[in-house]
Structure formats: structure tokens, C-alpha cells
Amino acid sequence: MLQLSYQSPQVTAVPVQRAAAREDQDGPWHTEAVCRRDEAGLFFAPSKEPTAARLSREEAAKRVCARCPVLVQCREHALLQPEPYGVWGGLTAAERRVVLARRRRQDIELKKAQSAA
What we know:
This is Transcriptional regulator WhiB. Acts as a transcriptional regulator. Probably redox-responsive. The apo- but not holo-form probably binds DNA. It comes from Streptomyces clavuligerus. The protein is mostly helical. The protein is 43% helix and 7% strand. The chain has helices at residues 51-66, 71-80, 93-116, and strands at 2-5, 12-15. The longest helix is centred in the last third of the chain and has 24 residues, at 93-116. The relative contact order is 0.10. Mean pLDDT is 79; it is low at 1-25.
């Protein structure tokens, strides 16, 4: 990316360095992810993928996740964003929706219990 600088009547191009990932946003965990060495197609479905192929691909992606040292961080990232597609932290999008729904129910129950006390 270039940034234009108007220091004189002539225009000069000054290269702009990309900002490093913020730790509170993406964090450095992704640099250790095992999936960085695998093809992204394993973790994201092609359009109109047959069910049997999708299940097989998701299981293969989950096997990669199972050996990943940052599985927990990846899963939490996907739940907090929330990531709507793909296998993240060993969970499919549908499985993440279940986890999020469960967390919402637990939060509601906790708030009810706290207000009753």
C-alpha cells in the first residue's frame, strides 16, 4: 500500500507498513495454529457440497484441530466474533451456535439467580 505525501509541489510515494495484529483482537495465538500449514479448503465448505463430503471434510478438519496447541484460543475467538462459517477450534458453525445458545441460557439463569438472592 502506498501513502501519498505532499511535501513539495511534486508527489512522492511513501510505503506504509501494515500494522501488527492487535493482541486484544486477533492475538498471536493464530501464528501457532496447526491449520496454517493445511489447505483452507479443509476448514471451509465449497458451495453446494454434498452432505457426505461435508461430514468427511469436517471430520478431517477436526482431526487437525485435535492436535493443535491453540485449539482453546481458536475456539474462543470463533465464539466471540462469532465466526459464521467453517471449522474453528474443532467445532463446526452449527456446533458453535449450540455452544453460544447454551452460554446465553446459562447467563440468563445466573442473572435470575443473582437477582433472586
